[in-house]
Specification:
With 302 residues, the protein is α/β, with parallel strands linked by helices. The protein has a single domain (2-301), classed as Alpha-Beta Barrel (TIM Barrel), CATH 3.20.20.150. 41% of the residues lie in helices and 15% in strands. It has a nine-stranded parallel β-sheet with strand order 3-2-1-11-8-7-6-5-4. A two-stranded antiparallel ribbon has the order 9-10.
Length: 302
């Protein structure tokens, strides 16, 4: 396994500055964000460290040279929108950009794009299924032709009571992963596995890894703390009782998780994803978050 980090937490740094930082701190890899330039509609979105809008072979060669210069690799390209947005224009824009990210991944020879399945949160899973089949059959076929894998993160994308209980991403549980992979049985479709989203759903992380090990293309290292006082006050139908934290500061059982990853012979990247508000006050705080997370995870990744 190779330890790295997700670039979204460092929007003010260029790709080269971030590769230099990763090298100085002893990281092996990073997952760079590839959002369209021009802003974001939520936290951690809208960050662009690889601009794929007009990505050329020369752009790819320049980035490969930077990787060699700093001795840090790209794990894959990250873009996390809603490809099943109920607004047809927004959906088309997302799909068009996602295909550009896939093409760029092929040029860069990273061969992986991490993203979401998406969802219309106002509809049931069953009502979303026709759109999923239409959109994702095409996207997977496109990725296959480019020789690129698609790693689907399991975040429910549930941020407000208005979105309860569906959220804006279908791929949130083992039952739905089975359904997705049965519907589109391509070896190019797999998981970007994040244990933090399973903790608050009361889903066994280690069991997931053992069951879906061959489908895990990428791992995000983020923790989640269950605020038991808040949970007591609001119940599971409330919001705000699960809090993103740095690895080791929440309720993920990291020993069990890495035991399972080694059991299934996972050899890929493990990228720290910083979404801990306690470490967002400054660039130095966010660098410290990466450094602290690395010290904790080194005992498992080494």
């Amino acid at each position: 396994m190779q330890l790295g980090f997700v670039s979204a937490i460092l929007p003010e740094l260029s790709l080269e500055e971030m590769l230099a930082l990763a090298a100085d701190e002893g990281f092996a890899c990073i997952e760079p964000m590839c959002w369209p330039t021009g802003g974001a509609d939520r936290r951690y979105a809208g960050v662009t460290h690889v601009d794929v809008t007009r990505f050329t072979d020369d752009d790819a060669a320049r980035i490969r040279d930077l990787q060699k210069k700093h001795g840090v690799s790209l794990t894959g390209l990250g873009y996390y929108p809603n490809p099943l947005d109920p607004d047809p224009a927004a959906r088309r824009a997302v799909i068009d950009h996602l295909k550009k990210v896939i093409r760029a991944a092929a040029k860069l020879e990273t061969r992986l794009v991490n993203t979401f399945i998406g969802r219309d949160h106002t509809k049931s899973v069953e009502a979303n299924w026709p759109a999923f089949l239409e959109v994702w059959s095409d996207l997977v076929q496109f990725a296959e032709a480019e020789g690129v894998n698609l790693g689907i993160e399991n975040c429910p994308m549930l941020f407000s009571n208005d979105e309860w209980p569906g959220g804006k991403n279908l791929a949130v549980s083992p039952a739905l992963w089975h359904a997705l992979f049965d519907a589109i049985p391509s070896p190019h479709l797999g998981l970007n596995f994040d244990p933090s989203h399973l903790v608050w759903q009361n889903i066994d992380c280690g069991r997931c890894v053992r069951e879906f090990g061959s489908r895990i293309f990428h791992v995000h290292a983020k923790d989640e703390r269950i605020d038991k006082d808040r949970l007591y006050a609001t119940g599971i139908l409330g919001m705000g009782w699960h809090v993103p934290k740095l690895p080791g500061l929440g309720d993920v059982r990291w020993g069990e998780l890495f035991a399972a990853l080694t059991d299934v012979r996972y050899r890929g990247p493990v990228c720290i994803e910083v979404e801990d508000r306690a470490y967002e006050g400054s660039l130095n705080d966010r660098k410290r978050a990466l450094r602290q997370s690395k010290r904790f995870l080194d005992q498992f990744v080494g």
